[in-house]
Amino acid sequence: MLSWILLGLFILPILGSLLVFLAPESASKKIALAFSTLCFILCFPLYFGFDGTQSQTFQGVVSIPWIPSLGVRFALGIDGLSFPLVLLTQLMLPITILASWHEERKPKAFMACFLVLSAFMTGTFLATDLFLFYVFWEAMLIPMILLIGVWGSQERIYAAIKFFLFTFAGSLLMLLSVFTLFISYKNQTGVQTADVAELMKGVLSKDPVLWGMSLQDLVFWGFTLAFLVKVPLFPLHTWLPDAHVQAPTGGSILLAAVLLKMGTYGLLRFSIPFGGESFAKYSTLIAVLSLVGILYGAFVAFQQQDMKKLVAYSSVSHLGLVVLGICTQNVDGLTGSVIQNVNHGLSTGALFFLVGFLYEQRHSRMFSDYGGLAALLPRFSFFLVLVACSSMAVPGLNGFVGEVLILLGAFEARTLWAGVAVLGVVFGALYTLILLRKTLFGPVTCSENRSLKDLSLKDLLPLVVLALFMFWIGLAPSFLINKMRPTLENYWKKPESAYAKSGNPT
Amino acid sequence: MIINEFLIPISPVLSLMLSAVLLIVLEAIFRGEKAHFGKVSVALLGPLFSILFVSLVVPSALTESAVVDSTQLPAWLGEFHNSYNLDKLSGTLFLAISFFLLLAIVFAESFLAGFHEKTEIFSLLLFAGSGMMLLVSAGSLLMVFMALELMSLPTYILVGLRKNDLRSSEAALKYFLYGSFATVLLVFAIALLYGQFGTLQLKAISNLFRSQVPTGVATLAAFGLLVSAIGFKVGMAPYHLWVPDTYQGAPTPVTGFMGSAIKLAAFGLAIRVFGQTLLPLVQDWSKPLAVLAVCTIFIGNLGALRQNELKRLFAYSSISHAGYLFLGIIALGGSPQSESVMQYYLWVYGLLFLGTFGLLSWVESHKKSLEFDRLNGLGFQRPVLGFCFLLFLLSAAGIPPTAGFFAKYFILTQAFQSGHPVAVAFAVLSSLIGVFYYLKVLSHLYMKSSESTESILPQAPKAVFLGIVLCGLGMIYFSLFPAIFHL
Fold it and tell me: What is the SS3 assignment for B137?
């Protein structure tokens, strides 16, 4: 049952994109919406079918031989780490499509890109075969670069190519790590496999090979750099503001809500288990970078005149916090990170949705063109305030749960980290309030704004769903945490992973 | 007797030659519009029959284990009875050559629309094709030499086919001079090998090598000369200088044919000579050869960065692909799977190159030149062709999940396993440079709109459209079933 759902989540969007291609142009949005909603509905049986008490194995495993001689299989499965992100992906896709409803340029290709992107993203989270993961991880770039490059604003081509080159550079390093893992496993056991759980049983040499780093360190950095570019961690973040600002609304939503999550997911799924001791060795460095990122992102966001840029830099800051939670190496920090991952997807997705709503009508993202919208657009203002509160971690909303847990974890690990991170959270409240003040409050400065339309029913629906989730996680986070508690609690003690053990391979 | 022992084994080659000869005769007798269709059909029948014969004669060509080992030709052929191998390698490559020929003929036909008197292009293509088949199935050095000439001579003419075009003549002259120099090196190498071993049979040489590895200067010199000769043919650095000019100057469908089929044949020869005959030498010299391969990849990718003309861009990209393929040759020393991996790569690369040049020749015949901006807006004006071009570009760049990624991945795995991790690391990193220029083309294809409405590319003729779509479908097939050849 679970396997069929997972397979469905991957195959349905692809079928949908084929159908969009064949159907007349006027129907493409409806088809896309239908298929994405279908995927979302599949999440309900997935939620209830997923057994949250298991932590060691993947559930709903699909495994089909693909390239026998390399041991590569088309293998999907779900566990506590991927579970929340798979749900998030399926939730965001219909919202993205609704947000793109008014796009008139080449709607067919636009919708096909979204569906294909969703299939690849889901595949990335579900793959339990390292090779398959790599294929999906890279394949995702193709629809994304088209989304930015074709439907973006003025500087779209520059932003698209920059986005692609940054992530691709990271991926190439990961490819080298993948090579090393496969071949060292083969040399030790004589068997070729790409199965993630199986590969963890191998041992990597700890003798220095290059610049004082051991093979394991190199493998660790190969993976980690690829994922940190995607997160993005300071100073690898420079592609993000460009991509976010230039991307169409739907692209920004998916980019923020799902694509960035792949970085932190990859850290947890691959970097840390394969890195073992190397992670312990370098975690301070990564934590410091994430602290710098938290403050830097907040300061730069504070300066912005462009709403999308502000949200983009706030992502740098928020995801720095997520990475910090991982670096604490304790259960609280980790739980907070995983929750905050989802939170950021919800709140930033909603922010981009709202900014896109304004941009669609006024074709401007500048604060100077707005002001006093609270009186003109009451429904819009209500949701913007709500989403901003979620982003600022107001108690009762989802952001609070994640940030508190991360700070708690940081406090357990190093008091100083928690101290600096708290500063970042304060600044976060500051720039979010500035966003609210400059758009919603004060006098109406531009007379064009008086003719703005408020949210229609079509726009309300996704926002209400997002708001529900925000309250739900904020008030009763256990419904999500319980599903992954054993995974998270056992995460830092992985007795079966030989990578974590010391000693050299023979 | 003759039929069973001689004609049937060589039937794939024979059908190409026969249709080429028939075309020459037809050319002399029939002229004009009406005969044109007949000539094209005769030209197409050659490779079609060849495909049919390959699938009949070498039924195991595409199945995994059964290898038809070296069909012996009858003894009355004397020195030649050993000079033709019909095994899995030649079966796969025969299929590829015939298929590429079919596509090249289709693309050439529409490119030449209007100059019907130039049907000699078909017989030249077919002769070159039969030369390639003999080359990849060669069992003796004498055959290698003759097949190489049979392949090269028609190609020199094909490159210079547009007699009134300065670039075409320049390309032909350059190709001819470099090519004949390569042939000279090859003959020299053959002479040295004969002097050393007293035989021209590849099998016999390989056996002698297996018993004791001769490290005499003569053998080494012969090895070096062979690397150079084959390096010239495939466009390896430092023998790549002719490639951009020749690829740019040649008529576009001919370039497509050169980049796919000739590269395939030359690498087929490389597998025979290096992989099956001189393997111990390749193992001994694998480090310097790997350096050469990596340099080729970098030179190709760096050279392509500054181009603004599509044919030249793909010429440089083909240089870098030659580097990747050469890594496969080096890996033959350490890993037996490399041979089938190379077949996969050659198929994929040939398809994407031919498909690209089929499309480019259609664009060129309407827009007169091939600067990048000629592609502006094409992706959405002609969605199917645009999508195929997208597939070709992504494949050439090696981005998953396209077939080009699997091809590169397999080759690099083999090279890694046979002990060249550093070369692999450089090769992987240099594909970042490659991605940049392919993305530049992609951005013209999809992200920039054409400035004027009258420059919309008309619908391609059915045959050309079908050819390009076939290449595209082939790419999809190869990416869904990457295990097709070896695994």
Answer: coil
By the CB < 8 Å criterion, does A100 face chain B?
A: no
Interface contact A146, partner B, CB < 8 A: yes
Report which residue type is found at A136. Answer: F
> How far apart are the CA of A50 and the nearest CA of chain B, in angstroms?
29
* Contact with chain A for residue B36, Cβ under 8 A: no
Please tell me the distance from the alpha carbon of residue A64 to that of residue A89, in angstroms, as a whole number. 24
More confident residue, A402 or A442: A402
Q: What are phi and psi of A210, to 5 degrees?
A: -145, 125
Q: Report, as an integer, the average pLDDT of A184-207.
A: 81
- The answer to whether residue B440 neighbours chain A at the CB level (below 8 Å) is yes
Lowest pLDDT segment from A7-11, A47-51, A103-107, A208-212: A208-212
Distance, in Å, from the CA atom of B348 to the CA atom of B353, rounded to the nearest integer, reads 9
- CA distances to A349, A379, A473, B476 from A394, rounded to whole Å, are 18, 20, 12, 50
Residues of B in contact with A133 (CB under 8 A): none
The sign of the dihedral angle between the CA atoms of B274, B328, B344, B48 is negative
**A449 phi and psi, to 5 degrees?**
-65, -20
- C-beta atoms of A180 and B421 within 8 A: yes
- Backbone φ and ψ for A191, nearest 5 degrees, come out as -115, 140
How many Cβ atoms sit within 10 Å of the Cβ of residue B94? 29
Peptide bond into B383 cis (omega under 30): no
**Interface probe with B: pick from A28, A69, A104, most Cβ of B within 10 Å:** A69
Q: What is B202-256 written as a DSSP string? A: HHHHHHHHHH-----HHHHHHHHHHHHHHHHHHT-TTS-THHHHHHHHS-HHHHH
The span from the CA of B125 to the CA of B112, in Å, is 14
Nearest chain B Cα distance for residue A69, angstroms? 5
B118 touches chain A (CB under 8 A): no
Which residues of B are less than 8 Å from A175 in CB distance?
428
Picking from A334, A226, A240, A269, the residue whose alpha carbon sits closest to that of residue A86 is A269
Upstream peptide bond of B47 is cis (omega within 30 degrees of 0): no
Residue A484 sits at φ, ψ, to 5 deg, of -125, 10
The residue of chain A with its CA nearest to that of B408 is: A175
Contact B483 A161 (CB under 8 A): no
User: In chain A, positions 63-92, which contact chain B (CB-CB < 8 Å)?
Assistant: 66-70
User: Which residues lie across from A74 on neighbouring strands?
Assistant: A64
List chain B residues with CB under 8 Å of A209.
none
Mean pLDDT of B412-424: 88
Query: In this predicted complex, what is the ipTM?
Result: 0.89
Could you tell me if A438 lies within 8 Å of chain B, comparing CB atoms?
Answer: no
DSSP 3-state assignment of A59?
strand
Report whether pLDDT(B166) > 80.
yes
- Model pTM score: 0.91
> Which residues in chain A are closer than 8 Å to B425, comparing Cβ atoms?
176
Q: Which helix (H) or strand (E) segment is A4 a member of?
A: helix A2-22
First to last CA, chain B: 37
Q: What is the pLDDT of residues A55-110, one digit of tens each?
A: 677 888 888 888 888 888 898 988 888 888 999 999 999 999 988 888 888 888 88
Bridge partners of A210, per DSSP, are A213
Q: Yes or no: say if A341 and A85 are a contact pair by the CB < 8 Å rule.
A: yes
pLDDT of residue B1: 65
Contacts of B190 (CB under 8 A, 6+ apart): B141, B142, B144, B145, B200, B222
User: What DSSP string runs through A208-261?
Assistant: EEETTEEHHHHHHHHHHHHHHHHTTPTTS-THHHHHHHHS-HHHHHHIIIIIHH
Can you tell me the mean pLDDT for A255-274?
90
- Our measurement of the distance from residue A410's CA atom to the centroid of its chain's CA atoms, rounded to an integer in Å, reads 22
Question: B417: which chain A residues are within 8 Å (Cβ-Cβ)?
Answer: 183, 186
